[in-house]
């Protein structure tokens, strides 16, 4: 399913835009939306999900516009949404919760679908356990199951791995990649690794502005010949304000620095290959 975002802006307060003239095209597969907290990612996700309307611009999901009330119902029928904060009913079991959500969405063939979904997200053995006893990771997986109850062709997930341990985060990312084989999945995150491990195309938002749209490999190349490493025994090495420290690592009495700079930051510094995190930091730094 193709998503077209054309010149979208959103103002919550006058002269304080949450989004500024955003234009994007998103096609089938995994698409990453990356940016720091407060960048406007959730606002854009809520606009795509038809929860709020843009102040300016147009969003089309397939052939339907989100600002057309009649066409909106066609979008909702093919949409699954996992918000950052999902309210679950702790006194229900996963089976009861999915049955309830399926009824709300008007999905009639629920019993078989619920069993398949619980199997898909690895909750079959907990199908009749109260949700209030679940870990954070189990609740996020149940959230994905409710988003898939109507077998959507578009799945939107907002910051899905926040608060998960490394094992649960890896499991969740793998699950999203599997789901993207036959649908469009938009993953919004401020965690660079989530995007690096799952997405081929990515967009970067910062302070409501679109700073980058393209491939993940293209994002990495943004920092080509800009990443330097060097080792210093001085814990207070003076650095110019134009230099961004990406990472430091302490070893014995020395500190190894990884920095982003247009030119060699100091004698002995040498160029290294960039990562997606370097590309992301460089784009944010430039703006």
Fold and architecture overview:
- By secondary structure, the chain is an alpha/beta fold.
- The protein folds into two domains: 3-219, Rossmann fold (3-Layer(aba) Sandwich); 222-286, no CATH class.
- The chain has nine helices and 14 strands.
- The longest helix is centred in the middle third of the chain and has 14 residues, at 166-179.
- It is globular and about 70 Å long.
- It starts with a strand and ends with a helix.
- 36% of the residues are buried.
Mean pLDDT: 90
CATH H level, superfamily name of the largest domain: P-loop containing nucleotide triphosphate hydrolases
Give, in spatial order, the strands making up the sheet with the most strands.
6-7-8-3-9-10
Instruction: For the record, give the distance between the C-alpha atoms at the N and C termini, rounded to a whole number.
Output: 32 Å
């Amino acid at each position: 399913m193709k998503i077209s975002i054309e010149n979208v802006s959103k103002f919550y307060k006058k002269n304080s835009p949450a989004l500024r003239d955003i234009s994007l095209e998103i096609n089938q597969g995994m698409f990453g939306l990356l940016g720091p907290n407060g960048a406007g990612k959730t606002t854009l996700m809520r606009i795509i999900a038809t929860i709020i309307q843009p102040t300016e611009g147009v969003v089309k999901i397939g052939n339907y516009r989100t600002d057309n009330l009649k066409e909106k119902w066609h979008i909702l029928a093919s949409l699954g949404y996992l918000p950052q904060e999902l309210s679950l009913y702790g006194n229900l079991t996963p089976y009861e919760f999915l049955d309830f959500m399926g009824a709300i969405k008007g999905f009639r063939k629920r019993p078989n679908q619920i069993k398949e979904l619980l199997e898909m997200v690895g909750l079959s053995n907990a199908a009749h356990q109260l949700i209030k006893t679940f870990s954070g990771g189990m609740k996020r997986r149940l959230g994905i199951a409710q988003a898939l109850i109507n077998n959507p062709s578009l799945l939107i997930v907002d910051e899905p791995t926040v608060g998960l341990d490394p094992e649960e985060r890896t499991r969740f990312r793998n699950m999203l990649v599997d789901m993207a084989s036959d649908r469009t999945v938009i993953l919004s995150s401020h965690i660079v690794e989530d995007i690096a491990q799952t997405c081929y195309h990515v967009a970067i938002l910062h302070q409501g502005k679109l700073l980058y749209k393209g491939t993940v490999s293209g994002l990495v190349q943004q920092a080509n010949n800009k990443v330097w490493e060097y080792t210093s025994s001085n814990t207070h090495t003076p650095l110019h304000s134009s230099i961004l420290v990406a990472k430091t690592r302490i070893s014995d009495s020395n500190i190894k620095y990884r920095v982003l700079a247009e030119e060699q930051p100091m004698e002995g510094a040498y160029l290294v290959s960039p990562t997606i995190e370097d590309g992301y930091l460089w784009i944010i730094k430039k703006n």
